[in-house]
Design a protein that fits this description.
molybdenum ion binding, pyridoxal phosphate binding, globular, MOSC domain-containing protein, about 25% strand, about 220 residues, Benzoxazolinone_Detox_Enz, alpha+beta, 5 helices, two-stranded antiparallel ribbon, M1 Pyruvate Kinase, Domain 3, catalytic activity, 7-stranded mixed β-barrel
């Protein structure tokens, strides 16, 4: 099976949101130099939000919870944005908990299972850029630019808890045969909504929000 490396484990503390009239945020994440526990945070709004111990979730109506317990982003994609924007982008800048090297996170399949040490994670879907992210980046038209790229990183749920630290191997234990990638699911939900009916192939691995969108698309005459 395919494999990669955890380049960095990142957490964020509670800070004032740079977006006006918004809840405090934990998007400002940075690397930690020790092992961090990852566990299922439970339903959104009922638990700690993040699946990463020591990580803060502010807007728990839209972030965190069992289907968005952990957020992973590829180091190579950060490198792309460094070149594109002329910036230095350290791990955690995009709000990711896991900065992954040598693995194409956006080509991961919905339902794919990763093992990192004793931790098992399952890919649930794509990240949707929000105004907090835009305020952090301070780049004109950032949400549109990031959306057009359609390489958002992946949300994951926690199947088996444990500790993760930088330098650990990521091994793909399971890949479904439906062929629907994280990037394709994002395009279906945003710039290419004609693809929504095709997402049904990824059942039962659809994120609840994407499932709702697919059901609406299939119900249209």
């Amino acid at each position: 099976m395919s494999s990669g490396t955890v380049m960095s484990v990142n957490t964020g503390s509670r800070q004032q949101n740079p977006a006006p009239n918004s809840l405090d945020t934990g998007i400002h994440k940075g690397p930690v130099d020790h092992a961090v526990e990852i566990r299922d945070p439970g339903m959104r709004g009922d638990g700690p939000g993040s699946g990463v111990i020591g990580d803060y979730i502010g807007d728990d109506r839209h972030h965190g919870g069992e289907h968005q317990a952990v957020y992973a982003f590829a180091r190579e994609e950060l490198d792309h944005w460094e070149s594109e924007l002329g910036l230095t982008i350290p791990p955690g800048t995009f709000g990711e908990n896991l900065t992954i090297g040598d693995y194409d996170v956006d080509s991961a399949l919905l339902g794919e299972i990763w093992r990192i040490g004793e931790v098992r994670l399952q890919v649930t879907g794509a990240r949707t850029p929000c105004r907090t992210f835009a305020a952090v980046m301070q780049h004109q038209g950032w949400v549109k630019t990031f959306t057009q790229r359609a390489r958002t990183g992946a949300y994951l749920r926690v199947l088996e808890a444990g500790e993760v630290k930088a330098g650990m191997d990521l091994t793909v234990e399971f890949r479904p045969d439906h062929g629907i990638t994280v990037s394709q699911s994002f395009r279906a939900a945003t710039t290419q909504q004609s693809l929504l009916p095709e997402m049904v192939a990824a059942e039962p691995y659809l994120h609840p929000e994407l499932r709702r969108r697919v059901e609406q698309a299939l119900a249209r005459p």
